[in-house]
Design brief:
about 300 residues, seven-stranded parallel beta sheet, four-stranded antiparallel beta sheet, 9 helices, globular, binds succinic acid
Length: about 300
């Protein structure tokens, strides 16, 4: 029988498949569709210190092989997430979670990390320094090695849980950012977030998205993700959670060969709410087809 388990910083995952933050709510919303305990983990909706309504609509633009979003980190704020959303999710999901946090200042990242550190359900803190849809936060930390390192250092200092930094692909050299956060104590890297994109409505002759630009995700970005994960695997010695247009068990195998220890599925959840379930169920047969007995043995195998 094929072993599809993997691990992240000592946390054992039954399989590498994790819904990506922002594409799976707080997880319990999907419990009506299937038993979400089959998932390797869940990276829940990105959380900030205060509640956020998000960006004006339209926030979504459909594209060939993907979509652009400009949600703007809509979420109910860390107090409500910790006090209401996570206790509710605990009724449905029994495994360690990935807490995705965002901020507009080092103090905000610190506060969110401190709150998540108190939650037993949280196994890993995933620090988003790569949201392209807000000003003065997110990507402004993620595009500068010193700023990225300062976030990693700040969060690392207030939690004993593994800290994974979520990187943006909207940089010239992603390995520089990866090395900078590793040097300040990051336990792992999540990558890649969305690519900055735009659509224009031919009737109005204006951008479709109210915020003009947004983050492009979906199958079209898979080769970019694969290439960047391959590069970062060679640059650092910490695990990578790979993501970017993954929609099949074959994609999971490919991105693990590039260097990912686990894999997040994002945009595909918006197309097919059963995407993660379908991928998990298909994985053993796909492994068998390619002569893989133990999936974790192939991590970085393409190097
Ligand atoms: C958003 O809320 O705008 C998307 C989050 C992200 O891309 O990091």
């Amino acid at each position: 029988m094929v072993d599809i388990s993997t691990s992240l910083s000592g946390i054992k995952l039954d399989n590498p498949v994790i819904p990506a933050s922002g594409t799976f709510g707080f997880g319990y919303e999907f419990a009506d569709y299937y038993d979400i305990n089959i998932l390797g983990s869940i990276s829940f909706k990105g959380t900030t210190a205060e509640p956020r309504f998000g960006n004006p609509t339209p926030r979504i633009a459909e594209c060939t092989e993907g979509l652009i979003n400009s949600v703007g980190l809509q979420n109910p704020g860390v107090e409500k997430v910790v006090g209401e959303e996570l206790p509710h999710l605990a009724k449905f999901y029994k495994k360690p979670l990935i807490a995705n946090i965002s901020g507009f200042s080092l103090d905000e990242y610190k506060l969110c990390a401190e709150k998540m550190n108190e939650v037993d359900q949280v196994g890993i803190i995933e620090v988003n320094i790569s949201c392209p849809n807000v000003h003065g936060g997110g990507i402004s930390f993620g595009t500068n090695p010193e700023a990225a390192a300062s976030v990693a250092k700040t969060v690392r200092s207030v939690t004993n849980k593994p800290v994974y930094i979520k990187l943006t692909p909207n940089v010239t050299d992603i390995t520089e950012i990866a090395r900078a956060v590793e040097a300040e104590g990051a336990d792992g890297i999540s990558m890649i977030n969305t690519l900055l994109g735009m659509r224009i409505n031919l009737r109005t002759k204006k951008p479709v998205i109210a915020n003009k630009m947004g983050g492009f995700s979906g199958p079209a970005i898979f080769p970019v993700a694969c290439r960047m994960i391959y590069q970062v695997y060679e640059a650092v010695n910490i695990p990578i959670i790979g993501m970017g247009g993954v929609r099949s068990a074959e994609d999971v195998v490919e991105i693990m060969l590039a260097g990912a220890s686990a894999v997040q599925v994002g945009a595909e959840n918006l197309v097919n709410p059963y995407a993660c379930k379908d991928i998990i169920e298909a994985l053993p047969a796909v492994c068998e087809k390619y002569g893989i007995n133990k999936l974790s043995d192939i991590i970085g195998g393409a190097h």
